[in-house]
Design a protein that fits this description.
alpha+beta; 7 helices; 23% strand; flavin adenine dinucleotide binding; oxidoreductase
């Protein structure tokens, strides 16, 4: 186990008008692929969402630097872009966690879905445009709150996943990846079919766009995948067999399988034995 002492660090969120989309996409691309990516103290993600109340789009950027340094070098360019609000500060992780938690209304019905790809800046914009196109027919759904979370997965993280025997996720890439999470919130069960269609259409079109660009990557972060997606499809046969062996050795009676207590969406045993 690698233990890391907890200290205060630099983080927070800035919001921008939607007309800054191209600028933010360019900065995100630069932070993902440029020289700053070697600074392992730096991380970020940005959100593009729809505000039903104003019938407009929202844009926020969350910075993080794991040292108590205000305005660290990787974010110099970003911090020169005029923002509408800011919570940037030096603080504890618990404070930042509460801030993130407060942004999502409690209750409601939720769907997640994801795509991963190598990070040309224009793909970020196209992924957002697909969401804009698909939400037009459902944007008056009570409680409708869609949001895209766009974040990098750096080579350093991919390398670290192979240490100490490696991760069974089988993540391998020829450079940094962009991982996108679509979150969708709404109020009523009567709208389930419409919301499922909205999410499925976004996945289908976003996957097609990344494939057409030659930048698609099959790996999916399993916590982001929808029930219609196959995150194990990107693991590779060798890793699936490894997961199956581990499952059978640790839980030979199948207590934590679909025949027992774990009846959720993604079943390792079935995938590994098929």
């Amino acid at each position: 186990i690698r233990a890391v002492p907890q200290t205060q660090f630099y983080s927070g969120q800035k919001s921008y008008s939607a007309d800054k989309r191209d600028t933010i996409a360019d900065i995100a691309y630069e932070l993902t692929t440029g020289s700053s990516k070697s600074d392992t103290a730096m991380s970020f993600y940005f959100d593009f969402g729809y505000d039903q109340e104003t019938d407009n789009y929202t844009l926020t950027f969350t910075q993080e630097y794991s040292q108590p340094i205000f305005n660290p070098r990787p974010f110099y360019r970003l911090n020169r872009v005029p923002s509408e609000s800011s919570t940037i500060r030096i603080d504890w992780s618990t404070s930042f966690s509460r801030e993130v938690d407060s942004e999502t209304p409690p209750g409601g019905r939720n769907l997640f879905a994801t795509v991963s790809y190598y990070p040309p800046a224009d793909l970020n914009r196209q992924i957002q445009d697909i969401m804009i196109e698909e939400l037009q027919s459902v944007k008056k759904t009570p409680g409708f709150l869609p949001n895209l979370v766009i974040q990098p997965l750096y080579e350093a993280s991919i390398r670290a996943s192979k240490e100490r025997g490696g991760s069974a996720a089988g993540l391998d890439a020829n450079g940094p990846l962009t991982v996108v999470l679509l979150t969708t919130l709404w109020n009523n069960a009567s709208e389930n079919d419409a919301m499922n269609t909205f999410v499925s259409n976004w996945v289908e079109k976003s996957t097609a766009v990344t494939r057409d660009a030659g930048e698609h990557h099959p790996w999916m972060y399993i916590n982001y995948a929808s029930k219609e997606q196959d995150p194990y499809g990107g693991y590779g046969e060798e890793n699936l067999e490894r997961l199956g062996r581990i499952q059978r050795s640790v839980d030979p009676d199948g207590v934590f399988t679909s025949r027992g207590l774990c009846r959720g969406v993604f079943q390792v045993t079935v995938k590994a034995r098929s």
